[in-house]
Amino acid sequence: MKETAFINQNKKKWAKFERMSNQNQSDPDELSDLFIEITDDLAYARTHYSKRSVKVYLNSLAQKSFHGIYKKKRTPFSVFFQFWTTSLPLEMYRIRKALLASFTVFVVGMLIGVVSTMDDPDFLGAVIGYEYVHMTEQNIANGEPMSVYGNNGGEIYSFVSIAQNNLRVALMAFVLGIFFSVGSAVYMFFNGIMVGAFQWFFKVRGLLLASFLTIWIHGAFEISGIIIAGAAGITLGNGFMFPGTLTRMQSLSIAAKRGAKVIIGLFPVILFAAFIEGFASRHTEWPHLIKGGIIFLSFAIMVFYFVVYPRVVANKYNFDGKVVEKPTFVEKKTFDLYKVRDVGGVFTDTFVFYRKFFHYFSKIYWFVFPTTTTCVAWFFYTHPYGGTINDWYENMSIAFGIGNGSFRWEIFSVLTFLFSLNVTSTFFAFTLAKKQEKPKKFTKAFFTYTLKNIWRVMPIIGGLLLLVRGNIWLVILTGFLMPLVLSLSFPGAFENRKLFTGIRRGLSIGKRGWASGIGVFFIFLFILGLIFFFAIGPVQDLIKMVLDWFLISTTDDYFLIINIVEACLYMVIAHFLVPVFFIAFNVLYLSTVEKEEAYGLFEKLKKFGKASKIYEDEEAL
After folding, report:
1. What is the DSSP string of 162-208?
2. Residues 6+ apart with CB under 8 A from 149
3. Rounded to whole angstroms, what are the CA distances from 541 to 180, 227, 278, 385?
4. What sign for the dihedral angle of Cα 252, 254, 256, 259?
5. pLDDT (average), residues 293-319
6. pLDDT at 49
7. Looking at residue 301, what is its pLDDT?
8. Span 53-57, average pLDDT
9. Among the listed ranges 94-98, 297-301, 353-357, 507-511, which one has the minimum average pLDDT value?
10. What sign results for the dihedral spanned by CA atoms 104, 534, 178, 306?
11. CB 314: neighbour CB atoms within 10 A?
12. Which among 614, 533, 606 has a CA at the least distance from the CA of 569?
């Protein structure tokens, strides 16, 4: 076709498309169809009129439309704007029932807190601690009932510490939802009890208005944010309990993403609440009118944005809250043991292996956890304590049998055996990954392997436990030896080598992967340390809250029980994290073997031609 005929045949269509592209009210379906035809014409022009102006014109027209339709929507500002104006409000509309449930539970808790304080004047001390109540009564006697909000250091320091605490509380309200939604509901209930009891404590002393105007000047944002975080937690739990047509893990993953979206939306709210508490709540001398105005405006903002505005956006988009969400497709693959990995690959594959084989090596926990908690309780009951709540290091020292500088061999021996069982069971998981099949008599094979190979692990575990007695610098120095030390037991347990042959093999492979091993050690030491303390915080607070509720006025061993429970918590979390450390070095060991000996490559070459043609073609891809 000649160029003039091509232009005459399509120029009306091009003119129409150009005109519609410049209009805001164009029919999107018609515009989309025209855009497809324009790109087809451009392809034809590039083939037949590559040096003519019509190609330049069509290319310009298509580029302009493409950038206008797609590129503009992908700017960071537009994504940010769309999140706050559409995405988050629609998500709040979807969880409106969970929000109502969270609010209702919190209000019921407040009422119970009020009634309980009316019936028992000492109830508040049982809830939030007698020391805090005594301090507040002293402030009231001095004529400064709200001075606690002005005695927390400088404004900047107060803002940072309050923001950190509020973020932790919000995350806890969300994460506890994994316990069948009840965790978040219970957390809302106890927080409501504390707020109700605290308010009625001031009511009895004739300070209800003063306390209300001081507490809720920041509490309007803070408490509202916690209630919304509780709704996100309930959504998380509902996703786990009611998967519908999805698998439970797929449904949980989707619910977690929905809840995380809400938590991200709460960050500015929580930070602003901390800002008000740090900079405004301390000014107890402000007029009541100003305080009341701030509280009213704060509640109005929260109700409008998180309750009213979501309904407006839903009506605008005819959104009924029902969304069919498809889970991310994850192809099932066998875990490739022999593969060359860098430090990042070791990190990724460690957690892939942990997730994939957890249900195998975690079977030992049915024995390890009850035994560990029983032993820890016995350790504490046979160890003198000072009648106070210990910090985490003191409780860990007693649990490991090194409290007050003493060393107890019976405790050391028991813990060495239990942690060695844990680690040996992870080695068994590696043998399953190598065979790529589950044995018919799994329980018998599991315990036979574990008891047969535990002696290979115990010397290493014992040495690591002894490090607890040293300072942090000794631990760091030892980190440079870990790539060699942790490679000693794996050759015998995994490759079924004899003792001295396995030691030589382990030292040889460990030496070759020494540099990467140092990076793996310190990366995992840092990551697992963060996981350890992050996991401790929320769970520890919840456990202490429950124990305070039931034990503080009913037993003389309150402090001892708190210390035992916290130490058991530390030990249980440690049993979850220790396998990660050993899996990482085993993955590094196998990576070094593949790099030096190409063992996995030769195994694949042996199988080549024995599998189906289709399988080999897929492997080649």
Report:
1. HHHHHHHHHHHHHHGGGTTTHHHHHHHHHHHHHHHHHHHHHHHTT-H
2. 214, 277, 281, 282, 284
3. 19, 17, 23, 22
4. negative
5. 91
6. 76
7. 94
8. 76
9. 507-511
10. positive
11. 18
12. 533
Q: Write out the two tokens for 438.
A: 């589950």
pTM: 0.57
Q: Which two tokens stand for residue 170?
A: 């919000």
User: Residue 209 is encoded by which pair of tokens?
Assistant: 């208005």
Residue 142 to residue 157: CA distance in whole angstroms: 25
- The C-alpha atoms of residue 188 and residue 104 are separated, in whole angstroms, by 9
Residue 387 DSSP class: S
User: Which residue would you say has higher pLDDT here, 471 or 105?
Assistant: 105
Q: DSSP character for 75?
A: S
- One-letter amino acid for residue 92 of the chain: M
User: Cα–Cα–Cα angle for 592, 595, 601, nearest 5°?
Assistant: 120
Q: Are 177 and 228 in contact (CB under 8 A)?
A: no
Closest residue by Cα to residue 461 from 411, 501, 421:
421
Contacting residues for 371 by C-beta, under 8 A, at least 6 apart: 414, 418
Mean predicted confidence (pLDDT) in 335-357: 81
pLDDT in tens, 110-154: 999 899 888 887 777 767 766 677 777 777 777 666 655 555 556
Cβ burial, residue 288 (10 Å; 0-12/13-18/19+) = exposed
Query: Are 235 and 313 within 8 A, CB to CB?
Result: no
Q: Is residue 580 exposed (0-12), middle (13-18) or buried (19+ Cβ within 10 Å)?
A: middle
Residues in the chain: 621
**HEC readout, 420-454:** HHHHHHHHHHHHHHHHCCCCCCHHHHHHHHHHHHH
What are the residue ranges spanned by the domains of the chain?
3-74, 92-316, 353-607
> What spatial distance separates the first Cα and last Cα of the chain, rounded to whole Å?
42
C-beta separation of 364 from 427 below 8 A: no
